[in-house]
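User: My instructor asked us to take a sequence, write out its structure as tokens, and then describe one feature of it. I'm not sure where to start. Here is the sequence I was given:
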Amino acid sequence: MIFKALGDAVLIVLSFLLGYYLRFKVLLFVTPASLPVIEKYFNVLLFITLIWLAIFKLTGFYDNKKFTALVDEVANIFGGVTLASLLLLGLLFLNREFWVSRLVVFNAWWIALVLFTGTRLIGFALARAMRLKGVGLRNTLIVGAGEMGQLLARKMEQDPGLGYRLAGFVDDDPARPGLNSQIKQMIGELKVEEVLIASSQLPAEKILDIITDCERLGVEFKIVPGLLELIASRVDVDELAGVPLLTVSEIRLKGFNALLKRGVDLAASSLGLLLISPVLLAFAVLVKLTSPGPVFFSQPRVGLDGQNFPMFKFRSMAKDAEERLPELAGLSETEGHLFKIKDDPRITPLGRFMRRYSIDELPQLLNVFFGHMSLVGPRPPLPREVAKYNAWQLKRLRVRPGITGPWQVSGRSLLPFDDMVRLDIYYIENWSLWLDIKILLRTVPVVLTGSGAY
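Assistant: Let's start with the prediction itself. The structure tokens for your sequence are:
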């Protein structure tokens, strides 16, 4: 933390020096009659630097977080630098003797954003490159050999840049004796640094025992949340005659939040349709030229509060695809209520390309504009899928479905159905505008690489 703070102090000083140079040496058309000498700025620069570092500390710049997402780090930079700049402007307004040009502060603000973001990007790139070479990986033990545990293991093995090295699995059968003893033994023998509990079978007492052992051994631990943990952010503690009670408040995506989300969707879909209209026209022509049938495919989907709506796509399959579905029903490669085949024979060559890069989804901006869908939200299910839902799975219909969503940036077709639903419920319970922005930003590399799409 000390070295990081010293590096940030250098960047702060550099930002103000460049801001001074830009204000009084470059922007000559707004130069005042008398130029302040730079020594005047040096006199207050130490104070400014300390104020900015204090703000950075308060906004979490120096919290000890492992493998923080780059998107979160950039957001933290923007918030910290902006807050520090606003505080400095407030001090300038209150204390006239503390004189610093407001244009210098503005210049320092955007220069600091560039410098801090650039250095963090370089740092992330170097750290990832080191991890790809096997340096700095954390030996990780997964408790739970089910679907979620195996999915996490595949992610670790496919992308060492995430920072984890799989040390081993522990079966999560709650009836099996000696589970805790085996975990402690493996921690010692395999030099485990982190334990991931990815099990829905273990009782709470067992999990608490594992957590306690990890704390005693100085090993970090993480838990894949179950359904009850997903609503933890909305739980308030009350009591009745000394007995503690948990009250679950309303979901966040209601009232003003829902209105805000709809306003953003309307503005973004309008702008998006305008900007990509040449792309839409080009692929409409290609679909028509490469296979017989209509350009667009309209399919009934279930949206907000269980209401059906027609979802638009570019047609990516042969025109008789729906009629051929019964003969392929037993070949689905996903569990639960979804039907997906990696090498579906009904998909056209152009359709395979469009699906890989999600180009077939672009017409859904019309659904967003009309209010059927949102830019970000749960995947819009088919009516036949909803007919098989359990009661808890229906919760994902409490909000508008999205073009992209948490499951698409976390594995897309690779995730089991129940885990998709858990991600959707987490999104609904913890919605914020920033969460939508993060999902949209994370969608870009997923779409460009075609990760998990079929």
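For the description part of your assignment, you could build on this observation: The chain has three domains: 2-132, 138-224, 256-449. Try explaining in your own words what that tells you about the chain.
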